Amino acid sequence: MSRRWDIAFMGVPYVASKSISELKEIIDRYKNVYRESGHDEKKINIPLAVHTFVAESREEAREIAKKHVNLYLDTRQYGRNAQFEDLEERAQLLIGSPEDVINRLKKYEDAGCDHIMMLMNFGGLPHEQVLRSMELVAEKVMPAFKVKKEPVSL
Q1: Measured on CA atoms in the order 65, 67, 70, 75, is the torsion positive or negative?
Q2: In a domain, 91, yes or no
Q3: How far apart are CA 152 and CA 6, in angstroms?
Q4: Could you tell me which of 146, 20, 145, 25 has the C-alpha nearest to residue 93?
Q5: Nearest-angstrom CA–CA distance, 141 and 102
Q6: Residue limits of the Luciferase-like domain (predicted)?
Q7: Do the beta carbons of residue 52 and residue 133 sit within 8 Å?
Q8: Would residue 149 count as lying in a domain?
Q9: How many CA atoms lie within 13 A of 88 on its CB side?
Q10: Which stretches of the chain drop beneath a pLDDT of 50?
């Protein structure tokens, strides 16, 4: 079995894997090694940085973000072999309507990721569009992941 630098998943998913299922395997291996090394798995943090752009519709989001994702990838040594379509096919972008992004985030959550860093200002995206995307994330995406806290008795 060949060894991989599994720590790489704690960054940009398309650098470390070709799919969410492969990413899940990497996360599971990492958690196993973490546990076997005597650490408490409840204290582990699995962060991923994912390019994110949210618009009212999937079509609008893709139309706006595609050229900016490709520009970003073209200017990165580790991204030059990929384009928007490649990452979208591999479910490695958070680009679409609020519902699309919620569904994709749930897949990452199911794979073991518990922390998403949304890369929202990439490839020359206009400032106004970045701000609008951030507003949609705050208003329509984040509420789907609100943690319900149990009441504390004193």
Answers
A1: negative
A2: yes
A3: 39
A4: 20
A5: 6
A6: 19-115
A7: yes
A8: no
A9: 15
A10: 1-9
Beta-carbon neighbour count of residue 53 at 10 Å? 31
Residue 154 lies in a domain: no
Q: What residues make up the domain containing 90?
A: 6-144
Tell me the DSSP string of the chain.
Answer: -----GGGGSS-HHHH-SSHHHHHHHHHHHHHHHHHTT--GGG---EEEEEEEE-SSHHHHHHHHHHHHHHHHHTSGGGTT--HHHHHHTT--EEESHHHHHHHHHHHHHTT--EEEEE-S-TT--HHHHHHHHHHIIIIIGGGGPPPPPPPP-
Q: Is 153 inside a domain boundary?
A: no
**Pairing mode, strands 115-119 and 47-54:** parallel
Residue 79's pLDDT is what? 67
Q: Give the tokens for residue 103.
A: 């569904």
Query: Total structural domains in the chain?
Result: 1
d(CA 46, CA 61): 27
Q: Can you give the length of the chain in residues?
A: 154
How far, in Å, CA of 132 to CA of 56, rounded?
Answer: 10
Structure token pair of residue 8: 């790489």
